[in-house]
């Protein structure tokens, strides 16, 4: 697994270096056609390298998304962002899960992917399944807040209200206080 991650970051670093060079040169001299073509070649080289890296490692990408290692999850999210992974229903569920329970950087990237590709409307059932699965977990303040923020951003008022009502019925003082704050916003 570490070889895969190292190979991916090497390809990504090379692309980022080329992009920084393009930006610096275009700020100095303006963007020229040869510069654009050179960057297009660098992009194609990146995609070729990453596809080659993917094909040389035989593992399930759903497993990458579910990894306990944040670095591995970020690579999987980047592969989806770059259009290098097929997105199945199980991968979508995991994207929704990451956009609720991941670290801040993962949440932002996962939710950006979901919203920019208009997957919210297409996968409503998956969202409901993910939220239901999270309700089977012990609810702490941070999980309650993450689910509430996700539902608030989704603008799913019915699910948001149900979630806040669950918080109002919770015995944890912090969750109860946060639920009351959300109720005031309604």
Account of the 3D structure:
The longest helix has 28 residues, at 2-29. Helix 9 (141-154) packs antiparallel against helix 10. This protein has a domain at 1-57. Helix content is 81%, strand content 0%. The mean pLDDT is 89. It is mostly helical and 186 residues long. The protein has helices spanning 2-29, 33-56, 61-65, 70-81, 89-101, 104-116, 119-122, 124-135, 141-154, 157-168, 173-185. It has 11 helices and no strands.
Helix-strand layout with pairing:
Elements: H1 2-29, H2 33-56, H3 61-65, H4 70-81, H5 89-101, H6 104-116, H7 119-122, H8 124-135, H9 141-154, H10 157-168, H11 173-185
Helix pairs in contact: 1-2, 4-6, 5-6, 5-8, 9-10, 10-11
What can be said about this structure in brief?
The chain contains 11 helices and no strands. The chain is mostly helical and 186 residues long. It has a domain at 1-57.
Search tags:
single chain; 186 residues; mainly alpha; 81% helix; elongated
């Amino acid at each position: 697994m570490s070889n895969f991650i190292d190979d991916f970051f090497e390809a990504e670093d090379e692309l980022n270096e080329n992009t920084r060079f393009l930006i610096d040169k275009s700020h100095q001299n303006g963007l020229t056609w040869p510069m654009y073509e050179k960057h297009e070649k660098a992009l194609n080289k990146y995609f070729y390298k990453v596809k080659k890296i993917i094909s040389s490692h035989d593992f399930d990408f759903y497993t990458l998304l579910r990894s306990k290692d944040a670095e591995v999850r970020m690579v999987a999210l980047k592969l989806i962002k770059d259009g290098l992974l097929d997105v199945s229903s199980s991968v979508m569920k995991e994207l929704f899960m990451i956009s609720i329970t991941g670290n801040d950087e993962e949440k932002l990237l996962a939710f950006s992917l979901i919203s920019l590709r208009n997957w919210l409307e297409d996968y409503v059932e998956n969202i409901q399944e993910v939220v239901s699965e999270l309700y089977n977990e012990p609810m702490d303040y941070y999980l309650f807040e993450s689910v509430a923020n996700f539902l608030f951003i989704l603008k799913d008022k019915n699910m948001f209200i149900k979630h806040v009502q669950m918080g109002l019925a919770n015995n944890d003082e912090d969750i109860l206080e946060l639920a009351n704050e959300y109720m005031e916003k309604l």
